[in-house]
Amino acid sequence: MSGHQETPPGTPEVTRLLAQWVVDLEGKDIPADVRREGLRTFVNWVGCAVGGARHETVDAALRAVIPLSGKPSATVLGRPERLDPAHAALLNGITSHVLDYDDTHLKTIIHPAGPVASALLALAENRPMSGEDFLTALIVGVEVECRIGNAVYPHHYDRGWHITGTAGVFGAAAAVGKAIGLDCQRLQWAFGLAASQSSGLREMFGTMTKSFHPGRAAQNGMMSALLAEAGFDSSERAIEAPRGFASVMSDKQDWSEILGDLGQRWEAALNSYKPFACGIVIHPAIEGCQKIREQIGARVADIASVHLTTHPLVLELTGKRTPRTGLEGKFSVFHSAAVALLHGDGAPTAFTDEMVNDAAVVDLRDRIHATADSSCHEASVTVEVTFKDGSTMTQHIERAIGSRDVPLTDAQIDHKFTVQSALVIGEAATEKLLQLAWRSPELSDIAEIARCSSEGAVSA
């Protein structure tokens, strides 16, 4: 029995029109502010990829894929190992997401750079491209995945799909397709191949598999574009068909979110960057607890209880009361608040297995409670601390740092980059890589970034 069904009358040719936009777009068509945000996206991604390179998740992935890898022609950022391009895309998608420190498109909770930059940079080590062309393709990929995400969010996410994996594969396919010069028909095929490999489940949050999602999206998106280039066809209406991506995977299909104001309204300009290495909905609570710690100093030992008033999504996504591992700790607002109060920490060091099981952290964590309030903004929180003598202190965060209202500055991105990368490749190599990443649009060969990232790397 054929899976083909006629598209309802009035449905736009979403796949074709989106593909044609990607093909026709030139670098000069992208506004300067959007290109600047694209550069910030890339710099942040490089730091996160190197920062996560020594995580046990990456070690395990390398043990599995090295025996399967072809010609070692592409870099795993921050590592001495080299793999074939497809496996390098997979590994860099994993490294850049494993710390949960990467960029976020707040409207959809997509982490856009992981699938797109990981695929593009691995490709660039084998099919050279300039920094300017790389940046254009990166922005195209981010735009495509976020627009497709907008069209199905929140229903798609609420069903349990991890939207970074499911929409990210389209972004990777678009970016690689743009970089290798696919025509409209072949890019439609690439989107069809990507749609057939769109996956990732929210059930995996708090495990190694969560970071596998953007890695696999990068790998699958790259292969989708390369297969299409070789003449491997697919449906040319994979996004909008009755049995295509949007209808199968969501109760919502808003085509205007994909096609509306293409080239005028830029989702890529809305990207944001995490100040803390965990689920983004926890960030207000961490900031609020840090501010209280700054005020009370040694009185942190006198805390009797803590109460958080948060948006309902906080408890839905990060309500783990008893995390057992560092990865699970990234999805526990209770653990995150305890570490912020005790140590003022929200960096990767707050989310290790040791910190999650630290006796003092566990003791305070058990005295932290939370109430969901639908009137509370997602980027807001109220933290109320009660001390053993009965006195209280309240801290309200109206909009957390890292939100669209309080974005990270370039200097804060630099600090974040340096702190995590220096632990992996050292301070000197980190400074060189950071400066090179900011200058990436000037490079004649963007692969210089990948090579530079491994200069200070050592085997685990």
TrEMBL record:
<dbReference type="InterPro" id="IPR045336">
    <property type="entry name" value="MmgE_PrpD_N"/>
</dbReference>
<dbReference type="InterPro" id="IPR042188">
    <property type="entry name" value="MmgE/PrpD_sf_2"/>
</dbReference>
<feature type="domain" description="MmgE/PrpD C-terminal">
    <location>
        <begin position="276"/>
        <end position="438"/>
    </location>
</feature>
<dbReference type="Pfam" id="PF19305">
    <property type="entry name" value="MmgE_PrpD_C"/>
</dbReference>
<dbReference type="InterPro" id="IPR005656">
    <property type="entry name" value="MmgE_PrpD"/>
</dbReference>
<dbReference type="InterPro" id="IPR045337">
    <property type="entry name" value="MmgE_PrpD_C"/>
</dbReference>
<dbReference type="InterPro" id="IPR036148">
    <property type="entry name" value="MmgE/PrpD_sf"/>
</dbReference>
<dbReference type="Pfam" id="PF03972">
    <property type="entry name" value="MmgE_PrpD_N"/>
</dbReference>
<protein>
    <submittedName>
        <fullName>2-methylcitrate dehydratase PrpD</fullName>
    </submittedName>
</protein>
<dbReference type="GO" id="GO:0016829">
    <property type="term" value="F:lyase activity"/>
</dbReference>
<comment type="similarity">
    <text>Belongs to the PrpD family.</text>
</comment>
<feature type="domain" description="MmgE/PrpD N-terminal">
    <location>
        <begin position="18"/>
        <end position="256"/>
    </location>
</feature>
<dbReference type="InterPro" id="IPR042183">
    <property type="entry name" value="MmgE/PrpD_sf_1"/>
</dbReference>
